[in-house]
Amino acid sequence: MSWRCLSDLPRSLLAIGPIVVLGAIFGVLYLTSPFGDLGSVDDASTLEIIWMLTVIGALAGVVPVAIGMLWFPFIRDLDPRYLHAFLALAAGVLVFIALEMSEDVLEYSVDAENTLLAGSLAVIGVVGTFVVMYVASKWRQRKVTATDKSGLEIAYLVALALGLHSIGEGLGIGVAYIQGDSTLVMLLVLAFVLHNVMEGPTVVAAVARDRETPPLYHFAAMGLIAGGPVILGGWIGSFAQSDLLAVLFFSIAVGAIVQVLIEVAELIRFDAEAVLTRVNAATFVVGFALMFFLEDVLGDLLLEGWLVPP
Fold first, then answer.
1. How many CB atoms are located within 10 Å of the residue 76 CB?
2. What SS3 class is residue 253?
3. DSSP-assigned letter for residue 21
4. Mean pLDDT across the stretch 83-104?
5. Could you give the CA distance from residue 21 to residue 114 in angstroms, rounded to a whole number?
6. Mind telling me which residue stretches traverse the membrane in this protein (predicted)?
7. Element (H, E) at 218
8. Sign of torsion, CA 253 259 264 265?
């Protein structure tokens, strides 16, 4: 099925369809608790551990991002000012994630045996990633004229930044899995599904401003870049539990997000009189507040046992 086929569906269905799909998947996971008893994980082979974490990571990362990307046909037909508002909402999502990971960097740095080394890695990760991505962005802009500036390239940068962040999610899943805590694994997956579904529209919002819709393989690639690293993080978390490693990955993600926020602002400025408008400011706050609700409210309810699966 192509995006053109989806675009022919009623607008109301395009708006609520991904929510229905998410609810169905969330319900199946919540009611079936498919990961079972992990008490025998110590006897599992390396291949079995890698395979199971691949499946879990795909459910927690790739699937919800793909669901969120189903909003693309709805976003595609929005008036430019509302499209800019959607980009501002995406920025709110990214800022929340960056602040959340900054807190993680601080916590892991304090817990590390060598605090000075951890702090150095954090600075190198944030500054180094920002500089590399900034230089690459300027090089790209010199290669194309302003009128040819592509939202697809920005979307790939957003996917990359979110993918680096997703490694941290996978680290948590991998640690819980190797400890044999099936309940915690289930709760983490449910929390990350809620969290990551918003990454889909965050990625495709930049593409929606382009005149031509890119081929579907670009969407598949961006979905894998944004959600797939949950799998990589799960592997790392199960075999190489390290505070310093967590500091490095989280700080790299923070640096990437800072650069992406600049790109998003420039994308809005390209065909708008102002970046900071009332509508953009409102949707930015909505994006931040929505992620706070999904992560710190519903996520905490899950982890504290208020919404424990049967």
1. 18
2. helix
3. H
4. 80
5. 46
6. 12-30, 50-75, 82-101, 116-136, 156-178, 184-207, 219-238, 244-262, 274-294
7. helix 216-227
8. positive
Is the pLDDT assigned to residue 116 strictly greater than 80? Answer: yes
DSSP states along 291-304: HHIIIIIIHHHHHT
Rounded Cα gap, residues 6 and 13, in angstroms: 10
Q: What does the DSSP 8-state code read for residue 43?
A: G
What is residue 41's DSSP assignment? Answer: G
Q: Quick one: pLDDT at residue 194? A: 67
CA-to-CA distance for 291 and 25, rounded, in angstroms? 20
Which region holds residue 213: left if phi is over 0, alpha if psi is between -120 and 50, else beta? beta
List strand residue ranges (DSSP E) for the chain, in order.
none
Tokens 């790299």, residue located: 252
Q: How far apart are CA 33 and CA 310, in angstroms?
A: 8
pLDDT-derived band of residue 177, with 50, 70 and 90 as boundaries? Answer: confident
Per DSSP (E only), the strands in 135-238 are none
**Token pair of 55 as six digits:** 């499946």
Q: Are 173 and 238 in contact (CB under 8 A)?
A: no
- 211 contact partners, CB below 8 Å, separation of at least 6: none
